[in-house]
Amino acid sequence: EDKVVQSPLSLVVHEGDTVTLNCSYEVTNFRSLLWYKQEKKAPTFLFMLTSSGIEKKSGRLSSILDKKELFSILNITATQTGDSAIYLCAPRNSGNTPLVFGKGTRLSVIA
Amino acid sequence: ETGVTQSPTHLIKTRGQQVTLRCSSQSGHNTVSWYQQALGQGPQFIFQYYREEENGRGNFPPRFSGLQFPNYSSELNVNALELDDSALYLCASSLRAGTDTQYFGPGTRLTVL
Which of B98, B101, B104 faces A48 most closely, judged by CB atoms? Predict the structure, then answer.
């Protein structure tokens, strides 16, 4: 059975801090891993990772995948209050299968 | 904004009732997936529709059913509502079945009393 574990489950930081969110997975025939940010309702797409060791970057957010150790991290530098959200990771295996989400990491950034 | 819309935004029902939730996919997307997200959990896959056919189903009972229409919009129907059905219901559209990136709508918050 596919398994996704995110850590920490929740995190409180001050503005300007750097955070690292973790996602470990067990998925047969792994194909890709997606990160989403969920603020109120709709998860919004952040990154899709398919290759090990290649960092994807968007502004202050970056993410990398390790297919050998079966994990991914999402880094956020110089955090802002607008980064407060739940961050979800979802690995995908080959074939037409659904996203399998972790429970998410709830990040709270305080001024 | 992803271009995926859902209605209604909120809904309150009582146990035993039936509910229909609606989703309009992003333009050009022919695949819609439905997810249930209980409080404190990640979204759980219910089923997917591709070109009006069910194309995969998660571990949900048959009282969860769906439809996809020729314009690729979709409905989720839940019969005989139970208290545990209270959740945020999300639909996500993708360009085609098997495409990795899914774009989510704002969800429908269902409360069952």
Answer: B101
Residue length of chain A: 111
Distance of alpha carbon A70 from alpha carbon B35, whole angstroms: 25
Q: Contact A95/B100, CB-based, under 8 Å?
A: no
For A48, which residue in chain B has the nearest alpha carbon?
B101
Distances in whole angstroms, Cα of residue B90 to Cα of each of A109, B14, B44, B100 = 26, 20, 9, 17
**pLDDT per residue over B18-63, tens digit each?**
999 999 988 888 899 999 999 989 999 999 998 899 988 999 999 9
What residues of chain A lie within 8 A of the CB of B102, using their CB? Answer: 34, 45, 99
| DSSP per residue, B8-37 | -SEEEE-TT--EEEEEEPPTT--EEEEEEE
Separation in Å, CA of A24 to nearest CA in chain B: 14
